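no rush on this but wanted to send it before i forget. theres a chain ive been looking at and ive put its sequence and its fold in token form underneath. i want to understand how the tokens follow from the sequence so walk me through it. thanks a lot i owe you, the record is right below:
>
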Amino acid sequence: MSKKVAVLLGNEFEDIEFTSPKEALENAGFETVVIGTNANEEVVGKHGEKATVQVGIGEAKPEDYDAVLIPGGFAPDHLRGDAEGRFGTFAKYFTSNDVPAFAICHGPQVLIDTDDLKGRTLTAVLNVRKDLSNAGAHVVDESVVVDNNIVTSRTPDDLDDFNREIVKQLED
């Protein structure tokens, strides 16, 4: 049975940070499942890419997935605005149980809501780094950072390194 990766997605995601890792994972034989606010809702990226939410966050069970992917753009900030904090709670399953968690650009914003970043080494786009630091993470400026089960990258320029490492995490 192939491994399944939950992709947390909302409107105004960074298109290439969704499509490129999704393609890399699927080309490696893994299944991706888009999780958003409501099932069957269409979400639109900053540059017009469209995706359909397959599973609403209210029905999503993190233990059904082998990893979580959080693309950047403005979507992570929108997802954090969920009144019940369901996206942070979903992501916490991965960070606290050593299950792979992948986040690029603004994606690590969702990881802040897990309260599991103290002492972890991460990277992100420049304007998220201070938030990560305030959450207790050691923040570095590198194309890809692997800290045990958490893989983070800064921007679309880092996608080759990011994609290589997320696939590697699931192949091990």
Observations:
- The longest strand covers residues 31-36.
- The mean pLDDT is 97.
